[in-house]
Amino acid sequence: MTMDIVFDIGLVALLISIAVWSIVARDAFSAIVIFMVYGLLLSLAWVRLAAVDIALTEAAIGAGVTGMLLLNALARLRMTGSDAAPAALPLRIAAGVLCMLVSAALSALVLFPSGEPTTLAPAVMARLGESGLENPVAGVLFVFRSLDTLLEKVVLLLALLAVWSLAPDGLWGGIPGLRVFAEKKSVLVFLAQTLPPIGIMVAIYMCWVGASEPGGAFQGGAVLAAMWILVMVAGLRKVPSIDSQSVRLAMAVGPVVFLAIGIAGIFVANSFLAYPSDYAKPLIVVIEATLTLSIGVTLGLLAAGPPEKVQQP
Amino acid sequence: MNVVMLFGICAAVLVGLGLFGLIVRPHPLRKILALNVLSSGVFLLFGVIARRGTAAGLGGDPVPQAMVITGIVVAFSSTAMAVALVLRLFKESGAVTLDVAEAEPAKRDGG
């Protein structure tokens, strides 16, 4: 137990110093790279908090895809030199005091919580068995709070639509301006050739075990997205134009299947998004499998950004 | 000092740090990055609350944990949209600044 607390103190100290570094770093490029390291350390913190599902999501999305998105944006802004100077000293001091007060107030809430801890864990475990799932987090995501999960998929699609809409009108249907570094015989190309088969296996595995072990559609989808981005950045596969039918189909299939099963629940199980008791697990696995594909494609396109050039006929 | 308290304080500090970066960093990409640090702090706070609710043989309350997974994906969506806004701003104005009086940047502190 004492070793654990020493490890935790070290991890927290490291997390905070790396977060400070990513905020104060002089140029934007180092700040983003440090932020990616921060995301990986944060996923360790999630493991220590007994939330392995979140650790996987954080490592794949928080550290990987977000960092990739920011680095790509930085390349497109052609900003390499040092960043503009931070705000003037009085403002910095005022902001520092304000933020310390916020931190102190939050710490006080954590250190001196009022009342008994409330928990829904017993309620979740009491009914989880009926769904055939064993992973309680997957149970919450796909059974108890499935409306949240469905709407979140819609949020992803809406965000992508918003990103695409930010391109000038003439570029609608064009190709996202992901920077491609296609150099033959480079390490990047080698990685992009060897990693995706393993990555795709990992994604399928994560999606499959999500019902009983940590993992699931989000984590699998994020790994899938990372593999796709890697292949596109290395120039092995072209970035698809945003009006490509197959891409749009892949994006829509997950939410559509989810919604269709949810609506079927009104007639079969008397409630929207309810599952007939004997078929709950197979239906959830179908939803998760299609969602994994949709999340992967949507995350990949979100990271690729708005269209930048018109497709050559 | 236990795990809950330790990571609770860590989360509180991260929220403050993210907020600080959001205010003092003039570059929009740095603001987006600071916002991500802030949101990771908020998520960690959720994780701490989940850990406090250890019961029924689970390491933590699965409801806040599931909400954090949803939250991470939504935070990524908003980051992607914010980045797209910055890219469009750059395309329109050729500069990446949120400063209104762009013609006379010396008079303002930015941010």
Globally, the shape of chain B reads elongated
Largest sheet of chain A: 2 strands, antiparallel
The helical percent of chain B reads over 70%
* Low-confidence spans of chain A: none
The greatest interface between two protein chains, and residues involved on each side, is: A-B, 97 and 82 residues
Which value, in Å, is the CA radius of gyration of chain B? 18 Å
Structural class of chain B: mainly alpha
Helix content of chain A: over 70%
Which quaternary structure do these chains form? Answer: heterodimer
The SSE string of chain A, one letter per element, is HHHHHHHEHHHHE
**How much of the residues of chain B is beta strand, in percent?**
under 5%
Strand line-up in the sheet with most strands of chain A = 1-2
Average pLDDT rating of chain A: 85
Structural class of chain A: mainly alpha
Count of strand segments of chain A: 2
Give the secondary structure arrangement, pairings included.
The complex is a heterodimer of chains A (313) and B (111).
Chain A: H1 2-24, H2 28-48, H3 52-76, H4 89-111, H5 121-131, H6 136-144, H7 146-165, E1 175-176, H8 187-209, H9 217-233, H10 245-268, H11 280-304, E2 307-309
Antiparallel strand pairs in A: 1-2
Chain B: H1 3-24, H2 28-52, H3 62-93
Helix pairs in contact in B: 1-2, 2-3
